[in-house]
Amino acid sequence: MSWRYPRFAARLAAGLLFAAGMTTAFAADPIKIGFGMSLTGPLAGNGKAALLAMEIWREDTNAKGGLLGRQVQFVYYDDQTNPSTVPGIYNKLLDIDKVDLIMSGYGTNVIAPTIPIAMRKNMVLMSLFGTDANAKFKYDRYFQIMPNGPDPSLGLVDGYFDVAAAMKPKAQTVALVGADAEYPHAALEGARRSVKNHGMKIVYDKTYPPNTTDCAPVIRAIQATNPDVVFVASYPPDSACIVRAANEVGLKTRQFGGAMIGLGYAAMKQQLGPLLNGMTSWELYVPEPTIKFPFIAEFLKKYQPRAAADKLDALGFYLPPYAYAQMQIIGEAIQKAGSLDQGKIAQYIHANKFSTVVGDVNFAANGEWATGRPLYVQYRGIKGNDLDQWRQPGKAVVVWPASLKSGEHKYPYHENRN
Amino acid sequence: MEISADLLLNALVSGLLLAGFYAAVSVGVSISFGMLDVVNIAHPAFIVLGSYIAFFANQLVGADPIVTAFVLSPAFFLLGRIMYRIYYYSFEQRGQESLRGLAFFFGILFITEVGLILAFGVDYRMVNTGYSAITWRIGFLDLPLRLVIPFTVSLAMMLGLHYYLSRTFFGRSVLAVAQDPLALQLMGVNPRRVKELAFALSIATAGVAGAFLIVIQPVQPSLGRVYIGLVFAITVLGGMGSIAGAMVGAAILGIAESFTATFFGPSWSPAVSFGLLLAALAFKPSGLLGR
User: Fold this and answer.
1) Are B267 and A207 in contact (CB < 8 Å)?
2) A169 with A265, same domain?
3) How far apart are CA B26 and CA B4, in angstroms?
4) Shared domain check, A32 and A161
């Protein structure tokens, strides 16, 4: 036998081992999902809660073997709730970190600058609570998990004015007020259309700087117009400012509230407590007997202990279930599409209905929910600052939509305040 | 909009109550920047630190935030002394205070913010005191105690500081060190020590202002950045180094903000406030009560 035979065999064995190793390495590569998230800044409380919900999904998914036989890994950076950080973050995610998929950060302000980047790279963009962010872009791979319906800025607010129109006598005059920022501007634009559709008249329509310290002058100016209805579109610190000012000024109106971000947070509910009584506000989930999301209890059981340990939103009724649901949708789309091809994923999401922790979800052509499902609730009977009372039914009574109503709307607001 | 008497008077009162808070948050910068030429851009971060300490004491033992702030003001004073010593030996002594000193305080701002995030998380924090939900009504005037009490305490603090800095030997030393440190040294007073103690005093006021802040509104760690522009604007408007000027500047901005929000629309408030600042500086570049 030639002495070359063992050398050849050794080379062949080495080559086979190398190829096996390479194949194993490729199969073991995780699927990287990249995003910015508000980990600091004004919306960080919600951003971190959303991140926890997404991590729970990732752990659940990886425990079942991941997606396409690969584990899921997140690559994320703090966008500081600052839209100017978004281009840098997403360019890094796509060009340097080479993520396979991107998700948006939280909120209209940071979603809007993400869309052009997603469009340039033809990426699917599942977004977390943007109000009408895609209206001008009309990007066909954009999806949105906030349940506002196909016309989001109208869908978000229409229920509030349906409640107002059902009062006897019907409300005639409306005051609109909101913060000078992307989301409130979109909500107020929807409110103007809804007021017109309901045949009401706007008697006050102004915005205020987002970090206004004292909202009493704003409330007094509104009171001077004597409106039947006051609609507010605000972010957390100004939501608290407006609620406190309304109580201090003794606002007298038949219906007060609106689409006020922050009132859904556990910390705000606890700290404002009885100041919320009588208000009619937008919520996404409340523990009323008419709200039956089949898997929500299971999710909250995992979320709540970890949130308490990490000093995050202790109830998790607002953003976390939807952050989890968006991952369920993306995960199912990847698995069923059988690849990370962005076109196939987008096609699957457009064509199918998803069963999630927040109920069934399917999307319209513009990426918004095909059928909206925001809730309008009235806060009642809140005593003191105990958080546990919010886990029971009866404190946030659903007054709209009719299909999920758990109680009648009580008015006027000022007689139901305390 | 019809200008009724109740709307007018309530706007004036709201503006004054707000001014009390604004004066408290800016008096520390009046001392550090106005008198000592130390551009302490981290001052609002110390205010937020004061808010969180007040919040923590309120949660732990139910302590009133403003009482907590005064009890802990010696600790803030000590912190201010340490901060100034580091600043002096690292930058001022070497003549590098202008740019590097500014960078130093920027660093302190971010370190403080991140420290608060790690210690307390990112959620908004508020306190509930016995007076948070009480509003006195005198005729058509609304006086929410959440603003009245900080205003009253702030006024007392400002008057006390004004008296201390204008009538006591130490106070006059602080004014002297701002005018001519060498002359002060020739009179046997150590300018560095005077500046150290004055800077410490400015940080002590930040702790008290922080208590006012958390009584008035929810606080989160990065809230300090919102007040950077305001505190320096009030200091400059009122006149560098003038406590009375800080009070006048705060009153002007507070009342302008309140009137604009009531009668013209709240989104105009910052434009009107800073327009007044520019107009005042155009006619009196040293500030309204500046020397």
Assistant:
1) yes
2) yes
3) 32
4) no
In a domain, A4, yes or no: no
Predicted TM-score of the model (pTM): 0.87
Query: H or E stretch including A140?
Result: none
**Chain B residues lying within 8 Å of A246, measured CB to CB:** none
pLDDT of residue A13: 56
* B-proximal residues of A, 173-212, CB under 8 Å: 180, 206-209, 211-212
User: CA B255, B259, B262, B267 torsion: positive or negative?
Assistant: negative
Could you tell me the CATH number of the domain that includes residue A258?
3.40.50.2300
Q: Spell out the alpha helix ranges (H) of chain B.
A: 5-29, 43-61, 65-71, 73-87, 99-120, 145-167, 169-179, 181-186, 191-216, 224-238, 243-263, 269-283
**Residue type at position A113:** P
Name the residue in chain A with its Cα closest to that of B121. A311
Q: Judge: A207–B258 Cβ closer than 8 Å, yes or no.
A: no
pLDDT at B85 (0 to 100): 95
Q: Do B261 and A221 touch (CB under 8 A)?
A: yes
What is the distance between the alpha carbons of residues A116 and A122, in angstroms, rounded to a whole number? Answer: 10
- Residues in chain B with CB shorter than 8 Å from the CB of A208 are 261, 266-267, 269
Q: Between chain A and chain B, how many beta carbons pairs sit less than 8 Å apart?
A: 135
Of A45, A213, A218, the CB nearest to B216: A213
Looking at the structure, tell me whether residues A133 and A190 fall in a common domain. Answer: no
Q: Which one of B126, B127, B149, B228 would you mutate to disrupt binding with A, by most A Cβ within 10 Å of its Cβ?
A: B126
Same domain, A281 and A301: no
Considering the domain architecture, whether residues A56 and A119 belong to the same structural domain is answered as: yes
Q: How does residue A42 score in pLDDT terms, banded at 50, 70 and 90? A: confident
Look at residues A328, A357, A386 and tell me which one is the last residue of a structural domain: A357
Q: Which domain holds residue A396?
A: 152-291+373-415
Residues A62, A134: one domain? yes
Instruction: Report phi then psi at A73, rounded to 5.
Output: -125, 140
Q: Is residue A368 part of a domain?
A: no
Question: A277 with A403, same domain?
Answer: yes
pLDDT of residue B182: 84
Q: Look at chain A and report how many structural domains it folds into.
A: 2
Beta strand residue intervals within A166-284, DSSP E: 173-179, 201-208, 229-234, 255-260, 280-283
Within 10 A of A225 (CB to CB), how many other CB atoms are there? 17
Same domain for A233 and A379 = yes
Statement: residue A18 has pLDDT above 60: no
| DSSP labels, B246-286 | HHHHHHHHHHHHHHHHHHT-GGGHHHHHHHHHHHHHHH-TT
- Residue ending a domain, among A327, A357, A387, is A357
- Phi, psi at residue A231, to the nearest 5°? -115, 130
Residues in chain B, total: 291
